[in-house]
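We emphasize that the prediction below concerns an isolated chain of 315 residues; any contacts that depend on oligomerization or on bound cofactors are therefore not represented. The input was used exactly as deposited, without trimming of termini.
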Amino acid sequence: MLIVVALGGNALLRRGEPMTAENQRANIRRAAVVLGELVRAGHSLVITHGNGPQVGLLALQSAATPDADAFPLDVLDAESAGMIGYVIEQELGNVLPDRLFATLLTQVKVDPCDEAFSHPTKPIGPGYTEATARRLAGERGWRIAQDGANWRRVVPSPKPQTILEATVISFLVERGVIVTCAGGGGVPVIELEDGRRVGIEAVIDKDRASALLARELNADMFVMLTDVDGVYLGYGTSQAHLLERVHVRDVSGNDFPAGSMGPKVEAAIEFAKATGNPAAIGRLEDAAAIVRGGRGTRIDIGNQARAHDEGVTER
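Result of the prediction step, given as a token string:
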């Protein structure tokens, strides 16, 4: 079974952890062990990953460089994808020494007129207190928004239209290569009137880009791994309820926060509707059980969802 696995930024760098190379590698090593289980179970993998904490840190470092212009976000997207992809490939190679791997920088075409450029929602970088975030916003021209208990910089997150390297990725997968690609949602590019492509200041949502990639590869399953065990209605309240099996008609991305679970649910729905195959959301440690159908939240249009509608469970 071909599975596109999207590793959330918070699965690779746990909430509250300092953004150090050691912490990132330790978490990627943990992810590699989990992904290795899926490969040993006979599945083919294409791996994508988030970059929100990392690209924000790179942006801060770039802006702090004296006597130099800060690098634009598209370049920092590529830098973070290379950095994280390198560690993923290395740690997977340590777990699966007999397999072939490739990390591919991936350009993703977006619409320069996307309304996201007027309404930034994608959190990047570290979390701050509200007072600190507002001060930095004033000093650096940032847009900020609350993200859980903290405040973070937010940037445009346009909808991905085309994965430009999809044919190359498919070529590698057909030859048994485990590919890490579309890191951080890919590098956002636009197409000019003369046909040339150039980068644009944005960070594409990793889950939306991953869902598009999964559709273009005709994957059998799309799995989003994060640091929570599934999708909750009323998350953070006394009425919180974990959704286990959900038909696409019974859920909407609009039911959840735009900067958090909303894009994941929307991406799952888009994939399930387009392919007829299941999408799932859950905790990294539960990956094998999520694929088997025993953990996480599964969004489907087929037998899995109908079984739930009829009161049948698979735990």
